[in-house]
Specification:
heterodimer; A: Rossmann fold; 2 domains; 9 helices; B: ABC transporter involved in vitamin B12 uptake, BtuC; two-stranded antiparallel sheet; 2 strands; globular
C-alpha cells in the first residue's frame, strides 16, 4: 500500500489559535476517513490545507510523495478534488454546464470538452439524483439541490483523492444514504481515498474505515473507526455524555441528555 | 440548443444587415444612393462611423462580460472600477487647458490606463487579492474622478462645455474607424475565447476555480487588465457610452446561456449591433440635428433592463 496523502507535523491555526498540533498521518488507497470534532475545531481549515488552498502553519502535506506546495494547481486538480462547505452560483447556468466545469482540469485550457466529458457530467448528475436538472437553470435550486449539484461537480472531476466538507449538509436522510453509498463504492476503486468532515458520528461508523478526532485545543487522535469510536472518546471529544446504543445489528451513538 | 457557430453566423448576418441599414440611412431617411455624392457620403462619412459604432459596442460588451466574471456580479459594468472616470477627467482636463495638440483619443486612453493602474496597485495591497477590496477601491476611485469631472465642468468656459458634455454622454459624431478594425475586434474576441473555459470555472467562484486547477489570483489580474484595455479602447473611440457593457452581456446570458464560449462572441456581436442601431437612431430621430448616442443607449437600455429584471424575478 502506498500513501496517497501524507501529513507530517502539521499545525492548523485559526486566527492565531492553534487548533491542531503536530498532526501526522498517512492516508492509503481504499481508506475512507471521517474527521470529527466540535464546531471550530479546525476540520474545515484542515481540509482546505490538505487541498492546498491554505498554507500550513507548520509541517508538510504530500500528495503522492510530492510536496503539495511545489505542484501546480492544475496537476493537483487532476488528482485531488474537494467539496467545499458552501457553494453559491452567481450566474444563471444549466445543471449540465455546471457539472461540466468539473472536467476542466482534464482538458487543455483552450480545448473543448469531448463527448466522454459530457457523458461523465451526465453520469455525475445522475448519481446525485439531478438528471432532470441537466437542461434547467441552477438558480431555482433548494439548499439541498445546490449541495447535490456541487457534489456532481466533484464527481465529474473524478479525483482519486476526494476531500468532502460536510457532504451531507442540507440533505434528506434518503439522499444522505444514497450519496454516501455512492462515495463508499467509489472509494473502493483502485487508488481511491476520501476524507470527510462529518457532524453525524453514526454516518462515520457506517461510511468511514478510519477516523480522525480533533479536539480543538491541539490534541488529536487517529486510527481505525472500530477502535476509536467509543463512548469515552466521543464524550471527551464533544464535551457531553454520549452513549452507544445497540440493537444487535448496529451500534449507534446518542447524546445522553438529562433524561438519558 | 443551437450550436455556437450557427449563432455566431446569424449574429454576423445581423451585424452586416445593421451595417447596411446604417450606411443607407441619412438625415432624409433610408434609400439607395443614386448620385456620386450620395455614394461618397455613404462610404466616406457613414461607413467609418458605423464601423466605429460596431467596434465600440463589441469592445464594451466584451469588457462587460469580463468585469462581471471578475467581480462575480452580473450587474457589474466596464466602468464600475473608475476607468471611464479617469478617461473623462483626462479628456476634460485637456479640453479646458486647450491642449489641441493632444488628441482626445490619446488622452482618454491614457486616463483610463492611469485609473486602471491606481486601482490595481491600491486594490492589491498586502495579502491575498480580494474582489471586495478591488471593488471598493474602484468605486471610491470612480467617485474621486466624478468630483474632478464636476470641478472641470464648473470651471470650464461655456465654449468647451457642450463638447465636454457630449463626450461624457458618449458620442460617435467624430468617430471614424477603418473596416480593418472589425478584424481587430474579431481577433480580440478569438483571443478571449481561448480562455473561455477558465472563465466558466472562475464564474463558479475563486475557491472552486482553485480546486479545479486555475490560479485565481493570476487569472483575476489578467481579466482585470484585459477588461481595462478593452474599455480604454472603447472610451477612446466614443467617449463614455453607457449601458452597452451592462445590458448586452446580461441579455445575451439570458438568451444563450452562461457558457463563455458562446457568451463572448455573441455578446461582441450583439453589443456592436445594439450600439450601431442606437447610433443610427441618434443621427436620424431629430435630423438634421444629432443626439449623443450615449443618451439613446441609456434611454433604450434603462426600460429594457428594468423589464428584464422584473421578468427574471430577481437578480440572475
Amino acid at each position: 500500500m502506498t500513501a496517497r496523502l501524507a501529513v507530517a507535523g502539521l499545525d492548523v491555526t485559526i486566527g492565531g489559535v492553534r487548533r491542531i498540533e503536530g498532526l501526522t498521518l498517512t492516508i492509503e488507497a481504499g481508506q475512507s476517513w471521517g474527521v470529527l470534532g466540535p464546531n471550530g475545531a479546525g476540520k474545515t481549515t484542515l481540509l482546505r490545507t490538505l487541498a492546498g488552498l491554505h498554507p500550513p502553519a507548520a509541517g508538510s502535506v504530500e500528495l503522492d510523495g510530492r510536496a503539495l506546495e511545489t505542484l501546480s494547481r492544475r496537476s493537483v486538480a487532476r488528482t485531488l478534488g474537494m467539496l467545499t462547505q458552501n457553494t453559491q452560483f452567481a450566474f444563471d447556468a444549466t445543471g449540465l454546464e455546471i457539472a461540466l466545469i468539473g472536467r476542466h482540469p482534464h482538458r487543455p485550457a483552450w480545448g473543448r470538452e469531448r463527448r466522454d466529458d459530457v457523458e461523465r457530467a451526465r453520469a455525475a448528475l445522475d448519481a446525485v439524483g439531478l438528471s432532470d436538472m441537466a437542461d434547467r437553470s441552477c438558480m431555482q435550486l433548494s439548499g439541498g439541490e445546490q449541495r447535490r449539484l456541487a457534489l456532481a461537480v466533484v464527481l465529474a472531476q473524478d479525483p482519486d483523492v476526494l476531500l468532502l466538507d460536510e457532504p451531507t449538509n442540507h440533505l434528506d436522510p434518503a439522499v444522505q444514504v444514497a450519496v454516501l453509498d455512492r462515495l463508499w463504492r467509489r472509494v473502493h476503486g483502485p487508488g481511491r481515498v476520501q476524507v470527510m468532515a462529518l457532524h453525524d458520528v453514526n454516518l462515520a461508523t457506517c461510511y468511514c474505515n478510519h477516523v480522525l478526532l480533533v479536539f480543538g485545543d491541539g490534541r488529536w487522535r487517529a486510527g481505525p473507526t472500530a477502535e476509536l469510536l467509543t463512548e469515552a472518546h466521543l464524550s471527551e471529544l464533544f464535551g457531553c455524555p454520549i452513549r452507544a446504543v445497540s440493537d444487535g445489528r448496529q451500534t449507534v451513538f446518542a447524546v445522553a441528555g438529562a433524561t438519558g | 440548443m443551437t450550436r455556437t457557430p450557427i449563432l455566431v453566423a446569424l449574429g454576423m448576418l445581423l451585424a452586416a444587415a445593421a451595417l447596411l441599414v446604417a450606411v443607407l440611412t441619412g438625415s432624409s431617411g433610408i434609400g439607395w444612393p443614386e448620385t456620386d455624392t450620395a455614394w461618397r457620403i455613404a462610404l466616406e462619412l457613414r461607413l467609418p462611423r458605423a464601423i466605429a459604432a460596431l467596434v465600440t459596442g463589441g469592445l464594451l460588451a466584451l469588457a462587460g462580460v469580463l468585469m462581471q466574471v471578475l467581480l462575480r456580479n452580473p450587474l457589474a459594468d466596464p466602468y464600475i472600477l473608475g476607468l471611464s472616470g479617469g478617461a473623462a477627467a483626462f479628456v476634460l482636463g485637456g479640453m479646458s487647458l486647450g491642449l489641441v495638440l493632444l488628441p482626445t483619443e490619446l488622452l482618454a486612453f491614457a486616463g483610463a490606463l492611469f485609473s486602471m493602474l491606481i486601482v490595481f496597485v491600491l486594490g492589491r495591497g498586502e495579502g491575498p487579492w480580494s474582489t471586495t477590496r478591488l471593488l471598493l477601491t474602484g468605486v471610491v476611485v470612480a467617485a474621486g474622478w466624478g468630483a474632478v469631472i464636476s470641478l472641470l465642468l464648473a470651471l470650464g468656459d461655456d465654449a468647451s462645455l457642450k463638447g465636454m458634455l457630449y463626450w461624457l454622454m458618449g458620442d460617435l459624431g467624430y468617430s471614424t474607424l477603418s473596416p480593418w478594425w472589425l478584424l481587430v475586434l474579431a481577433g480580440l474576441t478569438a483571443a478571449l475565447m481561448l480562455r473561455a473555459r477558465s472563465l466558466n470555472v472562475l464564474a463558479a467562484g475563486e475557491t472552486q476555480a482553485a480546486l479545479l486547477g486555475e490560479s485565481p489570483k493570476r487569472r483575476h489580474a489578467e481579466i482585470y487588465v484585459a477588461a481595462s484595455l478593452l474599455t480604454a479602447l472603447a472610451v477612446a473611440i466614443a467617449g463614455t457610452v453607457g449601458f452597452v457593457g451592462l445590458i448586452v452581456p446580461h441579455l445575451v446570458r439570458l438568451t444563450v446561456g452562461a457558457d463563455h464560449r458562446r457568451l463572448l462572441p455573441i455578446s461582441a456581436l450583439a453589443g456592436g449591433v445594439f450600439l450601431l442601431l442606437a447610433d443610427t437612431l441618434a443621427r436620424t430621430v431629430i435630423a438634421p440635428r444629432q443626439l449623443p448616442v450615449g443618451v439613446l443607449t441609456a434611454l433604450l437600455g434603462v426600460p429594457l433592463f428594468l423589464l428584464l429584471l422584473r421578468r427574471a424575478g430577481g437578480v440572475r
